[in-house]
Amino acid sequence: MERDKKDPFIEEVDLELRSIDSKLKEVFSKTEALLKEHSKETVETQDPDEKETNGV
User: Alpha helices of the chain — where are they, by DSSP H?
Assistant: First the structure.
């Protein structure tokens, strides 16, 4: 196979992988935002006597 020619199968796989990558980035971004939000809520509601020891 010549290097200058593009394989249609490879092109299709590339497009699908790019689509998956885009969706994963979006999901990871949302997950990170939710984790940060939950982390802030946990710190705000944490008992003052419990400071960063988590009860241990």
Answer: 8-45
pTM of the model: 0.58
Torsion over CA: 36, 41, 44, 45 (sign): negative
Q: 52 to each of 14, 19, 22, 43, how far by Cα in Å?
A: 46, 40, 36, 9
* Closest among 25, 48, 29 to 37, alpha carbons compared: 29
**Residue 42 to residue 39: CA distance in whole angstroms:** 5
Mean pLDDT of each 10-residue bin along the chain, 56 residues long: 80 98 97 92 68 55
Residue 1, C-beta contacts closer than 8 angstroms, at least 6 positions apart: 7
